[in-house]
Specification:
Blueprint: E1 8-14, E2 23-29, E3 36-45, H1 48-54, E4 70-77, E5 89-92, H2 102-105, E6 130-132, E7 135-137, E8 149-153, E9 157-159, H3 166-169, H4 175-187, E10 194-198, H5 202-213, E11 218-222, H6 229-235, E12 239-241, H7 250-258, E13 262-267, H8 272-281, E14 288-291, H9 306-309, E15 313-316, H10 324-336, E16 346-351, H11 355-363, E17 369-373
Parallel strand pairs: 10-11, 10-13, 11-12, 13-14, 14-15, 16-17
Antiparallel strand pairs: 1-2, 2-6, 3-4, 3-8, 3-17, 4-5, 5-9, 6-7
Helix pairs in contact: 4-5, 7-8
The structure holds 5-beta-D-ribofuranosylpicolinamide adenine-dinucleotide and zinc ion (2 copies).
């Protein structure tokens, strides 16, 4: 029996408030309105950004369905949708591409005005498509993938190769694309260069993969958790260091190790101190440092402007700098052509019901990416 045009009752993991465990509930998912798409989610990864919402350090309205690293199949489309149809394999995009705003029109921009950075959690008409126990439940970042069905706007959907395996392709929705793009698209790492990556979670490891594919000859991984080092080396780090093993500031350690030749640094932790450390660690004249880790809510940074005056470049990127609808299908094609391997990033695969277990693994530093199967 077709579900088109009907409310779908299904399972979703609802966050009722800050630091409350994910609660698997029956929710009602309304049909897509005009220019919206309802998607059956098949697999979704767990990213640190979801945990930031749980901890209350990232803006969101509650109750909310988070999750933004998913892959699924279009179940139905609202009026006016022309770019996807039922049955298409898709990735929901936390960074939309409307094609009309100033970022979308500029060849170098990607921060579409439709991105929901302030956690409003509603679709264009100001309402939500989720209801639980008679109460509206908010969306998250134009995606909400911790649910069997979600509704997103057409501008937040990328159609990908129908043969892509969802349990891997979901990582294109955030972690892999963000890290890989930070290196190849935003920093534009050059062959033979030296790179340093602060933070070796799923995003940091993807940065390393990007540095490697760009031809960097030295890639130094930095983390406080030495259990992350083996995996970092598997994906391309040439060496790994723990700042706690040194008394000197980390920028001095890196300068000495590399004969003062660090061309590129990446902050992939999301802490103010490591943002400054990463900036100070790239070469004072020609170095580039990229902020990839999500900045903590309402925190200010002070720094010595001499760090920039000498010539360094300091940049940031959302979603690796990719234009989401255009570039993600191409990245998936590169994956299908075996240009890179996502297996090292996926440490755990769990059924959707075990979502809290998946978050525990992340919080204990034991997982890189846990993929939940729906
Ligand atoms: P993760 O928690 O799996 O990895 C972070 C790593 O940093 C862990 O291995 C920690 O041990 C390590 N770490 C913690 N403190 C320090 C420190 N002081 N020095 C060195 N290492 C440290 O997270 P993730 O890889 O999923 O995400 C990383 C960040 O990127 C996080 O802030 C997330 O919110 C952000 C993110 N940003 C975007 C974007 O579009 N810019 C997208 C996705 C994720
Ligand atoms: Zn993410
Ligand atoms: Zn736009």
């Amino acid at each position: 029996m077709s579900t088109t045009g009907k409310v779908i009752k299904c399972k979703a993991a609802v966050l009722w408030g800050v630091k409350q465990p994910f609660s698997i509930e029956e929710v009602e998912v309304a049909p897509p309105k005009a220019y919206e798409v309802r998607i059956k989610i098949l697999a979704t990864g767990i990213c640190r950004t979801d945990d930031h919402v749980y901890n209350g350090v990232m803006a969101a309205n509650f109750p909310v369905i988070v999750g933004h690293e998913g892959c699924g199949v279009v179940e139905s489309t609202g009026k006016g949708v022309t770019t996807v149809k039922p049955g298409d394999m898709v990735i929901p995009l936390f960074l939309p591409q409307c094609g009309k705003c100033s970022s979308c029109i500029n060849p170098n921009g990607n921060l579409c005005v439709k991105i929901d950075l302030t956690g409003k959690g509603v679709l264009s008409d100001g309402t939500t498509r989720f209801t639980c126990k008679g109460q509206p439940v908010y969306h998250f970042s134009n995606t909400s993938t911790f649910t069997e069905y979600t509704v997103v706007e057409e501008t937040s959907v990328a159609k990908i190769d129908s043969a892509a395996p969802p349990e891997k392709a979901c990582l294109f929705g955030c972690g892999f694309s963000t890290g890989y793009g930070a290196a190849v698209k935003t920093a534009k790492v050059t062959p033979g260069s030296t790179c340093a990556v602060f933070g070796l979670g799923g995003v940091g490891l993807s940065v390393i993969m990007g540095c490697k594919s760009a031809g960097a000859s030295r890639i130094i991984g930095i983390d406080l958790n030495k259990d992350k080092f083996d995996k970092a080396k598997t994906v391309g780090a040439t060496e790994c260091i723990n700042p706690r093993d040194y008394t000197k500031p980390i920028n001095e350690v890196l300068r000495e190790m590399t004969d003062d030749s660090v061309g590129y640094t990446f902050e992939v932790v999301g802490r103010l101190e490591t943002m400054i450390d990463a900036l100070a660690s790239c070469h004072e004249s020609y170095g580039t440092s990229v902020v990839v880790g999500a900045p903590p809510l309402s925190k200010m940074l002070t720094y010595d402007p001499m760090l920039l005056f000498t010539g360094r470049t300091w940049k940031g990127c959302v979603f690796g700098g990719w234009k989401s609808r255009d570039d993600i299908p191409k990245l998936v094609s590169d994956f299908m052509a075996k240009k890179f391997d996502l297996d090292p990033l996926i440490t755990d695969v769990l059924s959707f019901n075990k979502i809290n277990e998946g978050f525990d693994l992340l919080r204990k530093g034991e997982s890189i990416r846990t993929v939940l199967l729906l």
